[in-house]
Amino acid sequence: MGPRKRGERKRKAEENSAQDEEVADTSGAGKSSERSAGKVVSGKKSRTKGGKKYIGAHVSISGGIWKAVEDSVELGGRSFALFLGSQRTWQRPALDQSAAVKFQKACAQHGFDPTHILPHGSYLMNCGSPKQDVFTKSQAMLVDELSRCSALGLTQFNFHPGASIDSSTEKCIERIAQAINHAHNQTSAVITVLENMSGQGSTVGGQFNELKRIIDRVRDKTRVGVCLDTCHAFAAGYDISKAGGVKSMLDQFDQEVGLHYLRAFHLNDSKGILGCHLDRHEDIGCGNIGISAFRDIVNEPRLDNIPLILETPGRPGFEYAEQIKLLYSLCED
């Protein structure tokens, strides 16, 4: 077993150990985040098809944050997501400046633009928590995450909005917006990207109108956006599996939120059925969403030039590299 795979298993174990009440209600059990493909293919930036689609995967930072760039190249990805620190603890060591320099140099060398890189927030965060200690720590962590993005030369940061636990949805939305406004006051430029949720437990953001209500309360609208997760949307009741379903969902998102807020997509099939509210990711074409929806996604002009990130579990012979290759093969131009 090579050092990259050993590091990946360690990080997976760290992620799984974060199981307090807040995490259980906000993270979901289906995200397979820091996977690296078992068998990789040569990554080439120039393609004859799908030139405006930036498909990639959530990769590991084990061994150094710049390693995420190298992994993405090996996978054949044109975008990628990553965590910016440990998923186990609220307190993390400061970002090493030499590592940040290596990361930026690697991005420049391999042609990764910051707009196609989507850092993912810690599952410990619950910016909507009614528990003052959790809210305070989450708000501070959001500031820290945005500061790390700035140090890495990144322009956007994706996170799960939060969960109301034993309070109301409206109060949860107010707290999330409060945390975002506070983080914006403490940092500059980096865009906070809200992820839609599956509606599991007391999570907020499963319905587009909830995302809009958060955005409405954010003072600086230029620094807020949305990442749509296909599994979460399907589990929340948006039927993208049917013919024309992807188009209908995007039309509805445009009406309720506004397409100008759409910053990224997470590409995941779903183990659960439509409207199940379960966050259970499946490999592309192997779940209840089905391959046709992903063909529509990679051929949808409204999704040009934004990161399209895989968070699928993977299986022997069908890891990230193979799934990226499959998605590009579905592109018609």
TrEMBL record:
List, separated by semicolons, the cofactors it needs. Zn(2+)
Skewed-composition ranges (Basic residues): 1-10
GO cellular component assignments: mitochondrion; nucleus
Superkingdom of this protein's organism: Eukaryota
Name a single GO biological process.
Answer: base-excision repair
Q: Does the keyword Cell inner membrane apply?
A: no
Instruction: Provide the alphabetized UniProt keywords.
Output: DNA damage, DNA repair, Hydrolase, Metal-binding, Zinc
Q: Which CDD domains match?
A: AP2Ec (cd00019)
Name of the protein in question: Si:ch211-141o9.10
